Amino acid sequence: MLSGLKKNEKELALPVKIAEFAKLLDDARAEDKVQEELKAKTQESTVRLNKLMKDLKDNSARIISSLQGQYGKKNEKLEEFGIKPLKSGRRKPAVKQQVCH
Fold this sequence. Notes:
This protein is mainly alpha-helical.
C-alpha cells in the first residue's frame, strides 16, 4: 500500500501525508517486534519457572519426609517447620440413632 501511495502521491488528494503514514507504519512494526520479543522471553521464563517449581516441590517432599522420619509423623515439633503433624488417637465410634416409632 505504501509503495502504491508513494508512486501516485502527486495525483492523490489524501487527508493524511504519506510521510506521516509511513512513520506510523514503521513505529507500529517496531512495537510489534518488541511485543514478539517479549512474548518469547515470557515463554522462556515460564519454562524456567516451571522447572524451578518442580525442583522445589521435589526437594520439599524430600525434606518433609526426612523430618517426619527423624521426628515421627505425629510429633508436634514438625509444626516448627510448617508441617502439620498427624493427629493421634482413635476415631470416636459412630453414635447409633434411635428411630422413634
